[in-house]
Write a structure and sequence with these properties.
Length: 142
């Protein structure tokens, strides 16, 4: 009886394990060449927004990331306590967040983070909060 239970448990764990191809509920795709973010919810495009990523001498990491932590308001200790509203941290100190430098959106201007208009950062933050950071991805490509 115990053997049957263990076999069934093992089968359940294999079938219930998430796969690489599992689709995230919220996906933010950032195109570094175009300086634009496309936001998908359950595979459907919901938003396209201009962003600012790394300017010359800095880099925005490329790849696919899960959200490690979220903060409604964060202040950068590295950059003079600059405000980072609606921060979604995805790789070390790199985050998607709102900016007051909205005039630079659509062109590289940051130290590596992905900057959004504050209203759009709040929308994205709300979507991630609603669907869960574990069900959300940040994809960055050249």
């Amino acid at each position: 009886m115990r053997l049957i239970f263990l076999v069934l448990l093992a089968a359940f764990l294999v079938l219930a394990a998430p796969t690489e191809k599992a689709q995230a509920a919220v996906t933010a795709e950032i195109d570094l060449s175009d300086q634009v973010m496309h936001v998908y919810v359950n595979g459907r495009k919901k938003h396209s927004w201009p962003v600012s990523t790394a300017r010359r001498g800095y880099r925005t990491p490329t790849g696919t990331y899960s959200i490690k932590r979220m903060h409604k308001m964060w202040h950068s200790r590295r950059y003079n306590m600059s405000p980072m509203p609606h921060s979604l941290f995805f790789h070390g100190g790199y985050a998607v967040h709102g900016t007051t430098e909205v005039k630079n959106l659509g062109r590289p201007a940051s130290h590596g983070c992905v900057r959004l208009h504050p209203k759009n950062a709040a929308r994205l933050y709300g979507l991630v909060q609603r669907h869960g950071p574990g069900n959300s991805r940040i994809k960055i490509r050249r």
